[in-house]
Write a structure and sequence with these properties.
By secondary structure, the chain is an alpha/beta fold. The protein is built from 15 helices and 13 strands. The protein folds into two domains: 200 residues, Rossmann fold; 169 residues, 3-Layer(aba) Sandwich (Rossmann fold). Strands 3-2-1-4-5-6-7 form a seven-stranded parallel β-sheet, with helices on both faces.
Length: 388
């Protein structure tokens, strides 16, 4: 490429979510001599905007309207508005590639690419397709856009299989690019007083996950109650927030676990919480490729997680952590007790996890994989354009 290829990324916003963090790291890591990124947020900005501003990456932020997204007619009208605004932006930016991140952004990107005649369309599948159940319009539109995309990026083999099964997409169109993580340098760990304002002296497990039903917080709280019977000083720290917060608070109260389970809310320093904990737990009922497990292993921490979706592609059971069945608080509690009680085992798992991340899931590896995909797609498009 004689000049940097323009890539227009489309996402809903830049709040503190896993997909949002991955996008920011990708934009900041692209080779500026080969790619010129531009990010469009469809519904307002977010705290991650500052990172892009520091790198002087262009960002377009559309206003976030205060409406009821659960009303289908309103949601459809808003989607049409996103498509038109994005098409206008694409005509101004004139990107070589438009890349949608997360479902609604992928739909908007797909139609905008067609309206603005963008040469290459890339969409993303970052989770299993359960979110489409009961959402007829989204399912039809996203499936249509994915079939017409030049490439669909799945972040795990499990997501690729699910996409092929649900959408009947040619598997050759789907590229698996694992999420990446920055491995923190070894250094001093902050104390709990500085991190939480509390003096915590017992063993600590943390869970970093939005409060959504499929994340399994209720089973994890039940497991924490079982662990606390054997280790009274045990603490479970929950980092995140969401619509399940009231149910989570009720479960903590019903189990009389107010001293054992601590809600920390959304945090920008979740990695520091992970580094200060003895292990990281994730009790999800389904997962595509959870970033928190990468972060835990990068920090040298053993993980206890449910054996669902793309989790076993990250965690090697018995080597970098322990995998248990979903929706089984007793199995979760047993795995947590094993890791917390056996210091040498936890240390071995932590070292093995860090080595695995360095070899397979570094941020550098992820960024270079996207660059190769973009270059291949542009080369194929230009070859087709110059053909008979």
């Amino acid at each position: 490429m004689d000049t940097p290829a323009k890539v227009l990324y489309v996402i809903i916003n830049l709040e503190l979510g896993g997909a949002e963090r991955q996008l920011v790291e990708l934009v900041c890591g692209l080779d500026p001599e080969r790619f010129s990124p531009h990010v469009c947020c469809l519904r307002g900005g977010g705290p991650l905007l500052a990172r892009l501003a520091a790198r002087t990456s262009p960002v377009t932020v559309h206003a976030s309207p205060s409406i009821n997204y659960r009303k289908k007619a309103v949601a459809a009208a808003l989607l049409w508005r996103h498509m038109r605004e994005l098409a206008r932006l694409a005509r101004c930016v004139r990107p070589d590639i438009i890349h949608g991140i997360l479902p609604m952004a992928c739909v908007a990107a797909g139609f905008a690419a067609r309206l603005a005649r963008v040469p290459v369309l890339v969409t993303s599948r970052r989770s299993l397709g359960c979110y489409k159940e009961g959402r007829f319009l989204l399912r039809q539109l996203e499936n249509l856009v994915n079939r017409r995309a030049d490439a669909v990026v799945a972040n795990s083999e499990a997501v690729q299989r699910d996409t092929v099964a649900r959408e009947r997409i040619d598997p050759r169109k789907i590229s698996v690019i694992y999420n990446g993580v920055n491995v923190p340098a070894d250094g001093s760990v902050q104390g709990w007083r500085a991190l939480t304002g509390r003096d915590i002296r017992g063993p600590v497990a943390c869970c970093v996950a939005n409060f959504f039903p499929y994340k399994g917080h209720l089973e994890l709280i039940a497991a924490a109650g079982l662990v606390a019977r054997d280790i009274p000083g045990f603490r479970l720290l929950l980092v995140g927030d969401g619509r399940e917060r009231a149910a989570i608070e009720r479960a903590i109260g019903a189990g009389r676990l107010g001293d054992n389970v601590i809600l920390l809310g959304n945090r920008s320093d979740s990695m520091e919480i992970i580094r200060a904990s003895q292990c990281v737990a994730l009790a999800s009922h389904e997962e595509g490729f959870p970033n928190v497990l990468l972060e835990a292993m990068a920090a040298g921490k053993p993980v206890v997680a449910t054996n669902v979706g793309g989790v076993p592609e990250i965690v090697r059971d018995g080597e970098t952590g322990l995998l248990v069945p979903a929706r089984d608080p007793g199995a979760l509690a047993g795995a947590l007790l094993r890791v917390l009680r056996d210091g040498p085992l936890a240390e071995r798992m932590g070292r093995a996890g860090r080595a695995r991340v360095l070899e397979h899931f570094s941020m550098e590896r992820m960024v270079r994989a996207y660059e190769r995909l973009y270059a291949t797609l542009l080369s194929n498009r230009r070859g087709a354009s110059s053909g008979p």
